[in-house]
Amino acid sequence: MSWWDDVDGDDTDEDEPYGQYGQYESKVRIRPNPKGNRPRTKVRPTHDDAPVGWVTNVDRGRFGVLVTEGAGSDAAGERVITATKARELGKKSVVTGDHVSLVGDVSGDPGSLARIVRVAERSTLLRRSADDTDEVERVIVANADQMLVVVAAADPEPRTRLIDRYLVAAFDAGLDPVLCITKTDLADPTDFLAHFACLDLRIVTSRSDDVPFDALHEVLDGKVTVTVGHSGVGKSTLVNAITGSTRATGVVNAVTGRGRHTSSSSIALRVRDGGWIIDTPGVRSFGLGHVEPANVFRAFAAHAVPVREPADGIPLDQAHDWEIVDRVQDGELGPTGVERLDSFRALLTGMGGEDPGTD
């Protein structure tokens, strides 16, 4: 007979929680919470009703966030507040251009501080790495519409390979590239621009003493534009002219031919007639270690301008990678197409990817 069998046939322990041991339950001592507070719940708030803002700048762990009250674009209802990132976001980055949800003090009064508790899904994301072999990416700007690539016609001398890197980054991020040539009073940019004749790019030229406001507003109005460029090309000078800001500007070192960094952080500034422009720090290198190598040929083909109709009638952007190489080398984009293709292939092999043009 098992010890748990009911010997007398009367199951008296059925209705008691612990049977014959229930009498000791009330004598168990329950230790009080040593912290004297309620245990933390695992159910976190959703912040569905939290105010929404747009990050305009990032500075040492503090974020400037544009908050708009009411509907429409009434400037009177706008204010820029200071916020910090909530702990619950963990390692998720917050960058200029992000749409975020806020809690805390969103009044914008001096000394007030809000918390960013949620980052909305990003439509575009511009990134770069320290070099082509570095897999750690640095997020620069989120939710931009287009990239304004600023390059000087002289002082410092323009570099086609750096422009190629900017173009690949723009294509990978889903941004429309716009090429702006500054300091055209110092040198004629015609020969330099001929290198990119095979690509469908919007081009704006600017002199040191004459900013093309009409041409720039046609490109910038109603859009969020991120600027990139080598240090010393006049990027911040251009931004100051079209926004009325006072961003620091610098000069090019006469010995090294390199510009000095004057912008230390990304900041979004309102274009006078509408739209936003995000000024980024100047860089001397733009690593592409984060770019998917297959995207390089696909983006190149999508923005190519053929000089003749394809023999098989298939557009270049619908061809396979090895077909793109063969058709471009066969002259479908002209001599500049071969030049740009060789540059993109060099970038591809530099990132550790396989070159589809080799057997």
TrEMBL record:
Which CDD domains does the record associate with it?
YjeQ_EngC
The cross-references to Gene3D superfamilies, in alphabetical order and at most eight, read: P-loop containing nucleotide triphosphate hydrolases (3.40.50.300)
Q: List where Basic residues composition bias occurs.
A: 29-44
- Compositional bias segments (type: Acidic residues): 1-17
Q: Does the keyword tRNA processing apply?
A: no
Domain named CP-type G is located at 133-286
A Pfam cross-reference name: RsgA_GTPase
EngC GTPase domain residues are 142-284
Keywords from the UniProt entry: GTP-binding, Nucleotide-binding
Chain intervals for the UniProt region annotation (Disordered): 1-52
PROSITE patterns assigned: ENGC_GTPASE, G_CP
Stored PANTHER family: SMALL RIBOSOMAL SUBUNIT BIOGENESIS GTPASE RSGA, SMALL RIBOSOMAL SUBUNIT BIOGENESIS GTPASE RSGA 1, MITOCHONDRIAL-RELATED
Report what the protein is called.
Ribosome small subunit-dependent GTPase A
The source organism is Curtobacterium citri
Q: Which gene encodes it?
A: rsgA
